[in-house]
Amino acid sequence: MIVWVALLPLVVGLWIWESDWSLWLRPRLLFIIAVGNLGALGPKPRREDSHATGAESGRIQAARQEDDRDMPALRPSREEQND
């Protein structure tokens, strides 16, 4: 199922490009398929961000920054490397 979903836009795009349809129609159809595929399979906003408004959004951002401060650094900073 995953392979089918992943390869279907590619196969349809190749079929459109190799067809004998008019030259002005083929690139437009390929563009529509690309935009549709990116819209369906592209990154989505976080759930709490999509419904947050005003003050809620500020609280969410502050909570994320606080969480980031609590996490250990993946690599030492330049100051720590020089010490």
Task: Note down, in words, how this protein is organized.
The chain has 83 residues and is mainly alpha-helical. The chain is built from five helices and no strands. It has helices at residues 2-18, 25-41, 47-51, 55-70, 78-82. It is elongated and about 60 Å long. The termini are far apart.
Topology (SSEs and partners):
Blueprint: H1 2-18, H2 25-41, H3 47-51, H4 55-70, H5 78-82
Helix pairs in contact: 1-2
| Oligomeric state of this protein | single chain
Radius of gyration: 23 Å
* N- to C-terminal distance: 53 Å
What percentage of the residues does DSSP assign to strands (E)? under 5%
Helices, by number, come to 5
Order of helices and strands: HHHHH
- Poorly predicted segments: none
The shape, in one word, is elongated
Report the structural category: mainly alpha
Question: Short description, anyone?
Answer:
The chain is mainly alpha-helical and about 80 residues long.
Task: Give me some keywords for this one.
about 80 residues, mainly alpha, 5 helices, about 70% helix
